[in-house]
Fold these 2 entries.
Entry 1:
Amino acid sequence: MKNSTQKRQGYLSWDEYFMAVALLSAQRSKDPNTQVGACVATPDNKIVGVGYNGFPWGCSDDELPWAREGDLLDTKYPYVCHAELNAVLNSISYNLKGCRIYVGLFPCNECTKVIIQSGIQEIIYMSDKYADSDSVVASKRMLAQSGTQYRQFQTAGRQITLDLSGGDL
């Protein structure tokens, strides 16, 4: 047993903590190609919403398609709810004004509309791999006009390993 009189060093920053929750939430996604999670945090650093990409409640992930290409109705795109939408819809508060949302991918234009309308003030994202897509260009245009801030998550290259066996508690 450790007997220390000093606070522990190397603990997670708030940004690291909330991004880790978003990334952990992504592990619930059944999408075989893209797993995205999102976490909404208040200005007081309380988590009020978490989500991941998947089909709406009651819609079978065994019957609806997961394809990325083909006729629209034979792909996942008209059916999947994105992580940001789910995080807002799953929030425990109706008032998200001033909150931050942490997300693995920069939000598409549809999620950006939800983020802006919900009152979320800042987006912290990990990857902007679709930066040149019309969807993300439209997102950034709306974010600029609405005054909603966004920034890329800054990492120190740290890895976190979770042991779900409970053996080291």
Entry 2:
Amino acid sequence: MSDWHSWAAIAVFAGAYVLIISEWVHRVAAALGGAALMLAIGATDDIAAFHSDKTGIDWNVIFLLLGMMMIVGVLKRTGLFEYLAIWSVKKAKARPFRVMAMLIVITAVASALLDNVTTVLLVAPVTLLVCDRLKLPAAPFLIAEVFASNVGGTATLVGDPPNIIIASRAGLTFNDFLVHLAPLCAVLIVVLVLLCRVMFAKYFVYDEKRAAELMELREREAIRDPRLLAQGLGVLALVVAGFVLHPVLHYEPSVVALLGAGLLVAISKVETGEVLGEVEWPTLAFFAGLFVMVGALIETGVIGELAGALADAIGGAELGGSMLLLGGSAVLSGIVDNIPYVATMAPVTSELVTDMGGDPDHVMWWALALGADLGGNATAIGASANVVILGIAERNRTPITFWQFTKYGLVVTAATIAVSALYLWLRYFALA
């Protein structure tokens, strides 16, 4: 890493990161400014930044978000989210902690079936309405949900993008993830609920009068456009089916989402401009800038050097190696987005597994998946779902700062990684 481009890339990334966490400038400006500097100093170029599937903007993520944001924008007009908000509040008897626990479980289960970004796009509007009805601050509930989305998404092959990369490299199936990670994720959700009970205790203020008023509401009256609701839910069901049938259809999630958005706009009477007005454009721009910056670190060999150093430290020790990979992945995935990190580490892990003479479902793969997926909870930019939630919160005038998210994220990450380390030791070593 003697090339001056490598050190310059590190300096630019570090500077942009400082601006993001300090909030001296808006995070979108910091990310796009950092990306521009990476291009200006030659740490990356237009081919690598815009056309490479390894070091460029992940257009699948961008267009997946765009398509789902459009679908959610149409569904907002039907009253569906108001219906779900009233229903969930009534089921939880308007008790704030019960509401949060319910939303955590719903988000986790949905993230295992969909991807975590799609889930938070669907659940966040409900959460904002619930908090508005109960006169509660939305930030703690949104933060808890993004934690749940990352934990729940860890359980399956389709739940979190890094899992798809790992499955492709290791030859793992949907059922492999269910067998090896789903039991742990169920335990981690319980841990998360207990942590949230402690971390957000001061926000669980029960208003008996408001609760009584909410219990008298009729959720069915919230539906404003039954026809559009039927169209939206029908398209959403087709999109979900497209996600699940990816191994058969071979359509990328981004293509499925865009097809669904296009179909819904075509069959409904909603104006295209109104639908596009619901898109979180600043969030998409932030992702683009972040992808270019991280891609420059890959292009200049910085991330490769870090991955190689980790591989050298692991050597052939399975127990120590799996623990180091778990912890190292958690730390690095909190600093850079976990998608490019896993894309870089997957080949390194494959070589380690081969050297250890391991099977395709070797413990090292699960250590990488758990570290990357759960480590994404550590900071506000550690995972795609985190960035989406920050964008939604800002758009709805309930901004979540980098440190507000991160102070809770570090606690959740430390606890879930500790439980995961115990799980890996018990299942693959002590009881193997």
